[in-house]
Design goal:
By secondary structure, the protein is of the alpha/beta class. The chain has 28 helices and 14 strands. The strands form 2 sheets. Strands 1-4-3-2-5-6-7-8 form an 8-stranded mixed β-sheet. It has a 6-stranded parallel β-sheet with strand order 11-10-9-12-13-14, with helices on both faces.
Length: 709
Amino acid sequence: MLLFGTAFAALPVFALMPSLWGFAAASAVTYAADEALHVRAPAFVRRLAALQLDRTLRFAVRTALLLVLAQRMDVPTTLLVTGLAAFSLHFALVMLYTAVHHAVRRRRELPMAVRNLDMSAAGIPQSPPALLYRRFLRKLLHLDVPAHIGLLAALAAGTRYPAETGFALTPGLSLAAVLTMLGQLHRARRMPGPDEVVFEVNRQLAAYRPEVALYFSFASVSRDFMYQVNMWIETLEQLDRRALIILREHASFRYLSRTRLPVICVPKADDLAKLELPHVRVVLYPGNAGKNVHMLRVAEAKHVFIGHGDSDKLASSNRVSKVYDEIWVAGRAGRDRYQRVRHAISDQAIVEVGRPQLAPIRPAAEHTPASPLPTVLYAPTWEGWSDDDCHTSLIPMGVPLVERLLAENVRVLYKPHPLTGKRSAEAAAADRAIRELLYADNERRETSRAEAAAPRLKELRTHLGELTGRRSGDYAQQTRDAQLPNDDGAGEWNALHAAWHELHWESQGLVRHQVITGQLPTLYECFNQADMLISDVSSVVADFVASLKPYALTNAQDLPDEDFRAAYTTAGGAYLLDRACTRLPEILRSVRAPRHDPMEPHRRTLKEYVLGPDRPLSIERFNAAVNALAEKATAERAEHDADRRHDVVIPFQRAGTDSTHEPESETAAREALEAAARLQPGGGSGRGAADGVPMSGAVTEACGAPPPE
């Protein structure tokens, strides 16, 4: 950033001196630094744009200063005018290209993006080549380089021919790019209309007949939030009933993990209402979000809040959950947590289904230490949306805790919450300080082999990315390339996943600390590496309980032990770590001397209370809950349809009656007809029979027409 700013500030100085070679050097630095900043410091580039110093303006300023340099070096007026015309034409063509590009992009926008459905019949044309389509402005602006080099060469050689060549190349290449993009615009005119795309999606869904849907939305979604969906994929794939994933944000679609289930991303509520899901009987919600109401309107289905982890936070027993038909929790602890929210959730609405995702976690009996040193996983939660929900230990004690861990000569795996520092600058500062401590301490430990393993790890990750089903190109191209899943992909995916983790842990060494921030290694693989967990009040602790290994909860407020354990269920099997970390040596003794582990029997008791019994398996309990609720929804739907066939009776207008004076009985009949239409699926959105919503069997019988089949 300093180099970029210095070079740009030097340009006007060298232009006015004038200094040809100084200007050429500073110009080259600005080109290179600008590119590097876009890759390494995108936040800084965004700040420049906010100050109206966007990329186009920076290129224009550099060009203007080049012309100032030429004028100061007394070039012929005709050459100066030619240069001004060439550069002006280039920037005009850049603007035209941008307009055409936006037109292509608008035409390629689809109401839905799809994965794992065969959309070949939709007739979606191929997307423009990436060279023309992706990051086009960066490429197009750099077409000024021939003209820049040509003019600088002309100034150095004292001849106009290099400049004239450059002045011809720059606008010529820009014009060729515009003409090529106009051809892509012509192709984009063959894009199917929104209704055609929706029709094809519904045709594919009719063939698949999904019975269960997982629905996810989040206001500021990114890869940091997608664990809430990805954790449920394997469970959904094991259900007896056909499942579907519905996402509401494109970022969710981008960061979804591998699945063989059909996936539909529908950003707009109006388009979601056009989805035909007559066989869906159970809708599962891993998170509470405002857009959930768009799916809750589907009266034919039962709606279930499954969450994305059991914790003692207030968010895990939200009163908003009253809108769902049922709330599924892991064990008795979840039921009791909701019951503490008095007069909010009925006990009958809560179902204990266990945590099917925890199958990869190895129990303590099968655990083999991965290092000659005790391995401690420190996984603090984030600062929450508000101070009332702030349970992170990072701010009050994170840095001293890690310093004490290093003094105790342990191996630290540091895995902060993905949202750490999003709301609190103090949390962000503590996170940076902890990373620096661990990096510095690694300098005195064994040499890392990570660099040698990096190419193979990258290769494995690339292959894993290919197996996710994500395609290159825009969302229209990804939908065009969508195809039915290959069931054999699961075995290859699992093998590659295991190979990546094995190589990763081996390359990091046995005693080096690690800062883990990406999707790999996974949280549960970190559990399997660790001998002990230190964490805050969060769902991470509830999941770690499945391992039966020792864990400590941070008590940053130094509450009395009895009060802390009474307030937080997962503290029942935990060692409690005070803010000053004076208890840390005694807590680590449970790892160094496993026989001295007084909390071990409490963890066994807590495991069943929090996560449910080991038998039947959690996946079996979850699957049974889905089946039972789906059957209940089907039975209620059949009963409802049977009742409606006999409820609506509409008298007819007698022949010869003056229709301009509607009798009271006929007014009531008309209102009943409108009410019946509103009761149909989709009627809640205000559409009636005239909008394509069929009338019920009772209404059509009353009107003298046969009921629909």
